[in-house]
């Protein structure tokens, strides 16, 4: 069996990044959460002119060297620069963001200035050269690369583009994902349950995560456990999607047709991973689309989605700046049951204890069919394959959930 790390490596090596020629140009207002497909270079300097960081007075050091009391030559307001001659032995009244008059060495904040009855101003001390001046290009220089290919357009990067006067941006197309659940026992949410039936949790969970990942979702509903119907549905799904995600039917039971059908009409690149939960995960390819077969148990489906499908979608969407959340060391607050053999992703709750250390406890029972306790968790406790039971106080690695599960 492959380790998760090996499976990820194989999968990411096989999956392509989107081609640059498929990029679309979008106005900034429609580009949120999309992936940048073209390097963005700043057409201007920011700030685009020297301006004041304070409300106060723009001064020349030479004037102050002669006298600490100066007359006021005029005003420079934001958007309305000082006009005309700047007479010797005078200061210019200036507001935050206003253009620095030519020849000024510094801005003295108004709190440090005495206004005299005759309209002159007296300075208490000599300012430093450049004090309270924001210089042209200090933040972004014309020609700087402000956004790279493969970065996400966010509430931080889009306003930056706006501040540079850039109105449109090239983005990769959204990944089209077909989602379907398999199982005779499944009933869609909202319908009454008959004897022996259960609600279809996985399609709903997967759809929600795909929405967060800004995918285009094609809902292929629920399939009964019937080989021909699997074949027909997989064919229809792969004709329209870049990626087909199924859940259930991927184990070794008599009604588990996912892998059989994938093998028949496409190819299985790997099946089964040495992780718990989530062993029966299938990755492969159909004629026109990639294929991820998630296990049926809802906890396993979610864990394999997070650990495998999430990076796969990042790759397919061109999100090369995507990084897996880092693991952190934590103290186990209680003992943890663990069998040697597979890498374990227990659901845990971590917090900072009174000693300022990260401490983690498992949340309830860890069965892969037990979804209820998942809600109480905020991290995975990632236990190495070769590790056995963990005693309270031992160090374990945790993987805090990112926004996909948060
Ligand atoms: P399977 O791999 O199809 O044998 O499914 C394993 C377990 O997960 C069984 O108990 C199924 O009833 C359950 N299961 C499969 N698909 C879903 C689903 N979409 N929602 C909730 N439970 C499911
Ligand atoms: Mg099934």
From TrEMBL:
<dbReference type="InterPro" id="IPR005110">
    <property type="entry name" value="MoeA_linker/N"/>
</dbReference>
<comment type="similarity">
    <text>Belongs to the MoeA family.</text>
</comment>
<keyword id="KW-0500">Molybdenum</keyword>
<dbReference type="InterPro" id="IPR036688">
    <property type="entry name" value="MoeA_C_domain_IV_sf"/>
</dbReference>
<dbReference type="GO" id="GO:0005829">
    <property type="term" value="C:cytosol"/>
</dbReference>
<keyword id="KW-0808">Transferase</keyword>
<comment type="function">
    <text>Catalyzes the insertion of molybdate into adenylated molybdopterin with the concomitant release of AMP.</text>
</comment>
<dbReference type="InterPro" id="IPR036425">
    <property type="entry name" value="MoaB/Mog-like_dom_sf"/>
</dbReference>
<dbReference type="InterPro" id="IPR001453">
    <property type="entry name" value="MoaB/Mog_dom"/>
</dbReference>
<dbReference type="InterPro" id="IPR005111">
    <property type="entry name" value="MoeA_C_domain_IV"/>
</dbReference>
<dbReference type="GO" id="GO:0061599">
    <property type="term" value="F:molybdopterin molybdotransferase activity"/>
</dbReference>
<dbReference type="Pfam" id="PF03454">
    <property type="entry name" value="MoeA_C"/>
</dbReference>
<dbReference type="Pfam" id="PF03453">
    <property type="entry name" value="MoeA_N"/>
</dbReference>
<dbReference type="InterPro" id="IPR008284">
    <property type="entry name" value="MoCF_biosynth_CS"/>
</dbReference>
<keyword id="KW-0479">Metal-binding</keyword>
<dbReference type="InterPro" id="IPR038987">
    <property type="entry name" value="MoeA-like"/>
</dbReference>
<feature type="domain" description="MoaB/Mog">
    <location>
        <begin position="178"/>
        <end position="315"/>
    </location>
</feature>
<dbReference type="Pfam" id="PF00994">
    <property type="entry name" value="MoCF_biosynth"/>
</dbReference>
<protein>
    <recommendedName>
        <fullName>Molybdopterin molybdenumtransferase</fullName>
        <ecNumber>2.10.1.1</ecNumber>
    </recommendedName>
</protein>
<keyword id="KW-0460">Magnesium</keyword>
<dbReference type="GO" id="GO:0046872">
    <property type="term" value="F:metal ion binding"/>
</dbReference>
<keyword id="KW-0501">Molybdenum cofactor biosynthesis</keyword>
<dbReference type="InterPro" id="IPR036135">
    <property type="entry name" value="MoeA_linker/N_sf"/>
</dbReference>
<dbReference type="GO" id="GO:0006777">
    <property type="term" value="P:Mo-molybdopterin cofactor biosynthetic process"/>
</dbReference>
<comment type="pathway">
    <text>Cofactor biosynthesis; molybdopterin biosynthesis.</text>
</comment>
